[in-house]
Amino acid sequence: MRGAIILRDCPSCGAENNDSDLFCQRCGRTLPRVEPLPSEEALRSSEPRRRVAKPRLIPLYQNVTRRGSYSFAVALLVLVAILLALFFLLPPNLLYPPQVKVTNIVIQSRDNVCGINGLSGAGFTTSAGGSVSASMTLYDLNTSAPSCTVRSVSALTPGFSVWGTSVPLTVPLGTSESLTFHINVPDHGYTGVLDLDFE
Asked: What is the tens place of the pLDDT at every residue in 148-181?
C-alpha cells in the first residue's frame, strides 16, 4: 500500500495528523512515534513455514495381506455359524445316529437241523437302520441221517429281519456247507440279544 496516507490521532486533542508529522497540527504537542507497517514481502518471510506432511505410502503387499486376513476371518466366522446352526437345528439322529449293539446271537434250531459253526455267541455293533452280513459253516449232526437241511432262517427278536439267504441248503453227512445271509437291524437304538431261528 505505497503512496497511501496514514492518519493518526493526537493523544491530547484528538486531531487527525499525517503519519509523517512529528507535532500535532492543532495543538502542537509531540506525536508519539508509530512503527511503520511491514511490507507484504516482510510479512511473508516472517511467517513460520508450515511443514507439509508427506503422504505415507503403504506397500501393495501389506494392503493385500490385510484384505486377505479380513476375508479369511469373515469366512471362518461364517463357517462356525453354519456348523453351530446345523448342530442345534438338525435332529440328533442325523448328527449321532442311534446304535444297534447285539451282545450275543442265540441260534435256535428245530427238527434235527444241521450243526452250526462261526456265528453262535458272536455279537456286533452297527448304526440303526442298517444291515450286517453273516456267514457260518453248517455240518450234519445226525449221524443216522444221510444229510441235514436248513429250510429257513428268520429273526425272532422284534425289529430284526433276515434276507438274502441261500436256503433251503442241504448238507450231506460228513461234509460242511457255507451259509451267508444279511440281517436288517431296527431303525432305533437297541442293545441286547438277537435270536435267530433255523428250521
From this structure: 778 888 889 999 998 877 788 888 877 888 888 8
**All 3 cell numbers of residue 77?**
466366522
In a domain, 104, yes or no: yes
Statement to judge: residues 129 and 84 lie in one domain: no
Domain with 109, as residue range(s), is: 99-198
Beta bridge partners, 16, equal 9
DSSP assignment of 116-179 equals: EESSTT--EEEETT-EEEEEEEEE---TTSSEEEE--EEE-STT-EEE----SEEEETT-EEEE
- Backbone Cα Rg of the chain: 55
pTM of the shown model: 0.49
Q: Answer yes or no: are the C-beta atoms of 104 and 157 closer than 8 Å.
A: no
CB burial class (10 A; 0-12, 13-18, 19+) of residue 3?
exposed
